[in-house]
């Protein structure tokens, strides 16, 4: 029996489509990646009995990125990203193992039916799926087509069955237009972002310059916010006065009258009219007129109008609205919610659509009246040629609507109500969200937009992006060449980039007005190893140390607190060490500011602290303080923290594992000797006389943290999710610096227990 492999864009869509096509008789199982299910059933396809396998992806399978060496900001000139830097496709989410999952499920199939969303992104995902599975499909020895594309606009029985009966082919041109957009966004965005970030990062102390990003869509979005802010700031309010009068007739309700003159800007003039009106005892009606107003029929609903109505009437943000609309679509309540079309085709079954709503408890009577009186078609809109306007496909019961209301209330508490581009400019600290869901630009956002206008307004105006989109649409229609459009657009932005680089001083002048030079900010913390003067600690992101005498800036670990480390110095460069800590319950380690950015040894990388330094004799290095291999990760080493007393601890230098031990001990040291069983470094512990757990009142003991029975009750693991059980003797542990490359002597690999934390607790307790 032949196999038909079918792929949808989301797991929920795959389930809905499989249930419709199998008439509820499909069997389901989880796929190897745990995120996608596989629904199987038998049926007829192209006049033959076949086995259907329906599954899904989770959005894009692949993403575009530069090859490895071009991701190094320090070694690559941003200008090279426009042409010289090669790109490659990588898995969009490696943790999902989507390519392997698709290959395993599609192996040996005879036909493929692609049920991806019917838009350009969906067409692009079609070819990502095909690239992954086509080499594993059974070969077709005739001229039979083996790859089909299903076109649908809603998840209803009728639409899905019609799509299955009218299968077509995936559109290569639409997929190429998405490839072009992805490459343009990557090359243009990365080039501008890298240049302006590196240019401004070391110049201003109170500037959050961790990432000053540029995006072809993100930057015009910021431009709209700043433009509106500038108009508000430049508006000069002027006081004016109005007159409101009320007249009474008997016991009837008062009638409020409007003033023909509307307003006056002179208070004395207004007061004069008020005094005149007060002297009148009655009002005379001079004329009565009646007018009938006809409200135009609304045009059919497209995505933009749906977002506008949801915002004004329901107070819902665009991203929140789209999440709810997507959920309604996947469950068959509405048609596809991403459409620009506002005109129903002449053959669209409006009566059939209305009949679906006739039994609704909310508007059923209104629907029946419409059906009996006859339907006025919606106002003629625009047919863009994508999907029909957003249409209700079936009625929802009150219980189902209640579920959606409850879900909406939960989602409202998240930041999902901020659309993608607005979310980006919020995360970059270009704007802040104030009460009433209003966006207010920060100083950084305002300066950036004003700087773009000063250098090249095209960078911030939506017009150039609009022109690019028109070119991409021509690719989708097969009227333009992919490579020519890509090269032409990149050439334009490359010239703009070089002009921007040459003119960056114009933006820098605006920065100087709003931000303080780095030398004038920060507070003295530690001494420079070159001039031996105090360097200033700048807390604004990215936190760093700056020596004003040498005019050098040194990076530091982020997302933690920095303080001086006992005025101790690095033996290599004489820089005073600082201590990075993530809090009382987290881990901490010393850092040499110079070594952090300039690794002294070949086996070290940028961004390593003293707990990863391989210096053979430094008292702060991994070689002196490393104890044994981490109990959770494969590559980490547990390093003793000598500043943690009296709540002593050791922490992994790769992951978040922290091991607490020997609480209230007087002193803890790492010995130069190793355990004979597991090769971990021994520790020397001096206990307080009153709290010593040792027999006969002894206070000092040397032993292995992992193997010594004396220490068993004195060790407690925190933040760990074990991959392998710890063994009292042997096992896969690594020693510190000198023992990291060796294989420890073990006692085999016993069967892994089901409850890992229980096994760990059993060992320690």
From TrEMBL:
Chain ranges of the Toprim domain: 3-153
Domain called Topo IA-type catalytic: residue spans: 171-392
MF terms (GO), sorted A to Z: DNA binding; DNA topoisomerase type I (single strand cut, ATP-independent) activity
Compositionally biased spans, kind Basic residues: 726-754
Pfam family, one: Topoisom_bac
Family: Belongs to the type IA topoisomerase family.
Protein name: DNA topoisomerase
């Amino acid at each position: 029996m032949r196999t038909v492999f079918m792929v949808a864009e989301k797991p929920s869509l795959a389930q809905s489509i499989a249930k419709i096509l199998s008439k509820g008789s499909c069997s389901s199982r989880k796929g190897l990646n745990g995120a996608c299910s596989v629904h199987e059933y038998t049926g007829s396809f192209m006049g033959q009995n076949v086995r259907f396998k329906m599954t899904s992806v989770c959005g894009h399978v692949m993403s575009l990125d530069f090859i490895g060496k071009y991701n190094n900001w320090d070694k690559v000139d941003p200008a090279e990203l426009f042409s010289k830097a090669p790109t490659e496709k990588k898995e969009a989410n490696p943790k999902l193992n989507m390519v392997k999952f698709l290959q395993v499920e599609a192996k040996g199939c005879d036909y493929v039916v692609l049920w991806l969303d019917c838009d350009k992104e969906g067409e692009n995902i079609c070819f990502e799926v095909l690239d992954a599975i086509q080499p594993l499909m059974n070969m077709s020895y005739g001229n039979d087509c083996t790859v089909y594309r299903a076109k649908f606009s809603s998840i209803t029985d009728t639409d899905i069955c019609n799509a299955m009966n009218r299968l077509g082919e995936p559109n290569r041109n639409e997929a190429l237009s998405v490839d072009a957009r992805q490459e343009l966004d990557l090359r243009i965005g990365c080039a501008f972002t890298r240049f302006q970030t590196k240019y401004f990062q070391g110049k201003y102390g109170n500037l959050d310059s961790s990432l000053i990003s540029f995006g072809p869509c993100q930057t015009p979005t910021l431009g709209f916010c700043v433009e509106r802010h500038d108009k508000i700031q430049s508006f000069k309010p002027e006081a004016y006065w109005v007159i409101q009068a009320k007249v009474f007739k008997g016991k009837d309700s008062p009638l409020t009258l409007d003033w023909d003159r509307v307003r006056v800007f002179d208070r004395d003039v207004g007061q004069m009219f008020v005094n005149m009106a007060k002297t009148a005892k009655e009002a005379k009606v001079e004329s009565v007129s009646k007018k009938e107003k006809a409200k135009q029929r609304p045009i059919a609903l497209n995505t933009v109008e749906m977002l506008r109505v949801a915002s004004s009437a329901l107070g819902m943000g665009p991203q929140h609205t789209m999440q709810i609309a997507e959920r309604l679509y996947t469950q068959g309540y509405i048609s596809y919610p991403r459409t620009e079309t506002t005109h129903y085709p002449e053959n669209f079954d409006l009566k059939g659509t209305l009949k679906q709503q006739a039994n609704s408890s909310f508007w059923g009577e209104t629907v029946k009246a419409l059906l009996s009186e006859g339907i006025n078609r919606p106002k003629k809109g625009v047919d863009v040629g994508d999907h029909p306007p957003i249409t209700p496909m079936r009625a929802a019961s009150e219980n189902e609507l209640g579920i959606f209301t409850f879900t909406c209330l939960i989602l409202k508490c998240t930041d999902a109500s901020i659309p993608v581009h607005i979310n980006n400019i919020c995360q970059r600290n270009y704007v802040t969200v104030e009460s009433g869901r209003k966006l207010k630009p920060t100083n950084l956002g305002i300066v950036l937009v004003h700087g773009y206008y000063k250098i090249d307004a095209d960078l911030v105006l939506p017009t150039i992006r609009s022109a690019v989109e028109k070119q991409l649409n021509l690719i989708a229609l097969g009227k333009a060449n992919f490579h020519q459009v890509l090269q032409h657009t990149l050439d334009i932005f490359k010239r703009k980039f070089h002009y921007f680089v040459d003119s960056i001083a114009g933006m820098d002048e605006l920065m100087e007005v709003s931000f303080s030079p780095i030398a004038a900010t920060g507070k003295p913390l530690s001494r420079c190893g070159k001039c031996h003067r105090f360097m200033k600690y700048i807390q604004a992101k990215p936190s760093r140390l700056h020596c004003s005498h040498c005019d050098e800036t040194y990076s530091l670990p982020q997302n933690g607190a920095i303080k001086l480390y006992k005025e101790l110095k690095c033996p290599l460069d004489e820089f005073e060490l600082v201590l990075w800590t993530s809090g009382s319950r987290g881990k901490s380690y010393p850092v040499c500011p110079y070594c952090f950015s300039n690794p002294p040894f070949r086996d070290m990388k940028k961004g390593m602290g003293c707990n990863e330094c391989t210096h053979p004799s430094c008292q702060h290095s991994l070689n002196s303080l490393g104890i044994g291999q981490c109990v959770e990760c494969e590559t980490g080493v547990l390093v003793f923290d000598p500043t943690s007393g009296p709540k002593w601890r050791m922490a992994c230098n790769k992951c978040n594992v922290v091991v607490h031990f020997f609480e209230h001990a007087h002193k803890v040291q790492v010995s130069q000797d190793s355990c004979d069983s597991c090769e971990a470094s021994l520790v020397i512990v001096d206990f307080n006389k009153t709290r010593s757990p040792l027999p006969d009142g002894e206070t000092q003991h040397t032993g292995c943290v992992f193997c010594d029975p004396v220490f068993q009750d004195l060790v407690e693991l925190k933040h760990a999710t074990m991959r392998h059980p710890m063994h009292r003797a042997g096992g896969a542990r690594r020693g510190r610096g000198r023992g990291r490359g060796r294989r420890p002597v073990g006692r085999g690999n016993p069967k892994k227990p089901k409850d890992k934390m229980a096994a760990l607790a059993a060992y320690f307790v």
